[in-house]
Specification:
It is built from five helices and 26 strands. The chain is mostly beta strands. About 5% of the residues have low confidence.
């Protein structure tokens, strides 16, 4: 009898402790999120299973890729390196920034400098000689904590996204669960060295790029499965419009294609599992408290999808690896000289796909 009583007391106390932890000490204050309606149906294909693996085994989760004018591919890996892949196939460990996994989007500026987003340090410049300089670390006295992607305008200004002002890189899932608009678009002016706010209240601001005619920016909102258009010139300057919404996934990085269209990497945060999660605050609290449970349902590392979108926001082409057989968790896609180059937060290589194979 005493054993049964002790067992009951232990169970009750455990339930109360878990309830208190989940409801009163949860790291999030979540909103219910109505995910977009089911997008127009596309028949899944296996085009991405035809990628050629570049640098396999020596590139640790190359999240973003960028090509300079000489055709040298640059990427930042989870071990803090900036690595370069030359046209002859040689892989170069070019610059060690630090020993962290916080380097994300990167570009090569018109002056030949590399600029990379560091989720802890802000916007960082690495010049041709490898000297590292912090460009944008604070906004109005507050530390920039989750710089994500960056693009250079023709006047040299750097526009970059901040995924969340509340949660850091290793807490990104909490931002998704909380479902509140903590993202920003910022501008760094290299002539004045000032950082200013362009847009606030974005739903996990992610990839950003600029149109071929330099008329507008496109900024991806992963949480809302859409991309916004921010006008830069003339009478529309400062206005915001929806570029494309109701996407068949959550947009990550976006890259301008040579013909003026855009390539967008899509993550699978719009699955039936996530729709169920976003319908309940209690479930969100539980998943935030026990992150291993979230890892079981997130789904982003089990498939890959990229789309090509015209400058008018119309989907032109969709490429998949529906079950992650060859590539998964693709976070960026770059078109250069008839090939696509794919970055990923799961794979240990950069994928190369000849476009002629998917025509």
């Amino acid at each position: 009898m005493e054993y049964i009583l002790a067992t009951v007391i232990t169970v009750v106390v455990s339930i109360l402790a878990i309830t208190l932890q989940v409801l009163f000490f949860s790291p999030i204050s979540p909103n219910i999120l109505q995910l977009p309606p089911t997008p127009p149906s596309f028949i899944p294909n296996t085009h991405l299973q035809g990628v050629i693996k570049l640098g396999e085994g020596v590139l640790q989760q190359p999240e973003d890729v960028f090509m300079d004018q000489k055709g040298i591919l640059h990427t930042a890996t989870r071990d803090g390196w900036i690595k370069r892949l030359h046209k002859n196939g040689t892989l170069e460990n070019w610059k060690k920034i630090h020993d962290k996994d916080t380097l994300l989007g990167l570009i090569i500026t018109k002056n030949g400098d590399l600029v990379v987003c560091d989720t802890e340090e802000g916007l960082i410049k690495v010049d041709k000689d490898g000297e590292v300089t912090a460009l944008a670390t604070h906004l109005n006295g507050e530390k920039i904590r989750f710089a994500d992607d960056v693009v250079e305008a023709s006047d040299g200004s750097l526009y970059f996204s901040v995924a969340s002002t509340k949660f850091g890189l290793h807490e990104w899932h909490l931002d998704i669960l909380e479902a509140k608009p903590h993202g920003q678009l910022l501008k760094y002016d290299p002539s004045t060295k000032e950082t200013t706010l362009v847009l606030d209240g974005l739903g996990f601001a992610n990839g950003v790029d600029i149109s071929l005619d330099q008329e507008f920016l496109v900024i991806c909102e992963s949480l809302k499965s859409r991309c916004l258009k921010y006008w830069l010139k003339d009478e529309k300057r400062g206005k915001v419009e929806i570029f494309i919404d109701n996407l068949p996934g959550s947009p990550d990085n976006i890259k301008l294609a040579p013909d003026g269209s855009f390539w967008i990497a899509l993550l699978q945060f719009t699955s039936s599992n996530m729709k169920f999660v976003h319908s309940s605050k209690v479930i969100k609290h539980i998943l935030a408290t026990f992150p291993k449970l979230f890892n079981q349902i997130k789904g982003v590392d089990k498939s890959a999808m990229v789309i090509n979108v015209g400058s008018d926001g119309t989907i032109i082409k969709r490429l998949d690896d529906p079950n992650g057989k060859v590539v998964s968790f693709v976070t960026s896609v770059l078109e250069f000289e008839g090939n696509l180059y794919l970055g990923s937060l799961k794979n240990n290589f950069i994928g190369k796909l000849p476009l002629e194979s998917v025509v």
